[in-house]
Amino acid sequence: MIYGLFMLIAGLAALFFLFNTGQMTAEKTKLVNTADAVAYSAAVMHARALNFDAYTNRALIANEVMVAQTVSVASWLEYAKEHTERVTPLNCLTYYSVPLVLGMPKYTPLCALMAYPAAATAINLASGAFNALSTGTMAATEVAKVALQASQATMFAAFLPARHKVMQQVADANYAGRGVVKVTPAPLLDNYSVFDGGPFIKRYSGNERARFKEVEVAAANKDPFVSTRGWTDQTPGGCIIVLGGKASHTASTTLSNYDNWSARDDGAFRTEIWEFRFPRFRCRTKSSYNLGDGRKSARPSGGTWYYSGVPSFYDLSTAALGYVSTNSDVKKRDPRLQFAVRLTRDKAELRTSGGSSEVKQTGRMDIYQGAEAQDLMAAVSSSEVFFERTSPRAYGGKEQASLFNPYWQAHLIGNSPTVRAAALALQQ
Question: For the Putative Flp pilus-assembly TadG-like N-terminal domain, which residue ranges apply (predicted)?
């Protein structure tokens, strides 16, 4: 019986120890899982913030392209209107059509089309309607630009408080009805706020808008009408067969400085004769005709429409933009936004014998305590946001990270030695 009593006491002690250890393990596992959920939620917020800037930048670029297209179409319509008025001397609707006689295959049908009275009427109507429509459109573009820039600035200013709020909400949701869990206000690692000495993203304005200007000009020039609406035609062989003709439509749409979209269209026709001019034969212009001029612009003042200029925008910081696949430093070939968060639970909140459990250690059983440092149980988790296309580029090559394409993704990563050391320092 005495032996049995000793075994009973030993069994009870082991059972109590097993209970306490199991509860401690369960609490730790749940806290770690919650920390992972919180860190991943923060990473998703980071990715969404970067993708939001990318989408709004693309919207701003679309607005800019519309400005380029508007001035291009308006300039072309002005040129076309004058073309219908100045084409008469070429006799385009008769058998003596100058372009026809000179054997100009491209300009002959265009000359005939422009000579029809109905063409002039149609172009006049189109020009009037377009000018009326474009006035409202350009004003709406400016309003949209202001709204998009304001949304970027608001997101940037409100992001950090919103991030902490969301992290705490995720933590609370995981512990609903099970007490209090705290998200440490200062992250152990926060590349969103500090990346190579500065924030991960930056607002560019003033003379720092060159990158956006390059992107919007490239985007505008993808429209053939903006970049290559001009044409030329001439007599086969030029003026070698005594007399030749040349017709041309030169056009361009350019962005000067940061605030002047200008379009110009010029039409010209000339005849050339082959003659000897010492010391050789060459073509000499015999007659020339101005077939129309078009000039339209959008700028802060004095233009056809008001245009405030290339917008301010958010992009990766200068340091982050230096992380490219061709960098000689392997560690700087891919900008990654890393983040580490620490969660804590007070000892009194834990469902152990030393916490909120109804099973308490008393007397000699008091030796079985969790002995949490600073009476806190803590867990640390890290996440990362990276730039990667969902599908490879059609023409190959690696696309560099930026805030012009929404390819930012999030995942969890292991805690680095630096993060672990920082967490241990807080637990001392």
Answer: 3-43
Token code pair at residue 345:
């639970």
- Closest CA relative to residue 203, chosen from 65, 57, 339, 332: 57
Query: Does residue 18 surpass a pLDDT of 60?
Result: no
**What is the spatial distance between Cα 354 and Cα 345, in angstroms, rounded to a whole number?**
13
93, exposed or middle or buried, with CB in 10 Å at 0-12, 13-18, 19+?
A: middle
Determine the number of helices (DSSP H) and then strands (DSSP E) in the chain. Answer: 8, 12
- CA distances (Å), 422 to each of 27, 172, 428, in order? 22, 24, 10
pLDDT at position 364 is 47
Q: Does residue 200 register a pLDDT over 70?
A: yes
Sign of CA dihedral 316, 322, 326, 328: negative
Q: How many residues does the chain have?
A: 428
Report the b/e string of 269-280 with b at 16+ CB within 10 A.
bbbbeeeeeeee
Q: What is the mean pLDDT of residues 52-68?
A: 97
| Beta strand segments in 57-200, E | 182-183, 189-190
Contact 283, 289 (CB under 8 A): no
Question: What's residue 368's pLDDT?
Answer: 45
SS3 233: strand
Structure confidence at residue 9 (pLDDT)? 60
Say whether the peptide bond before residue 417 is cis (omega within 30 degrees of 0).
no
**pLDDT for the residue numbered 16:** 52
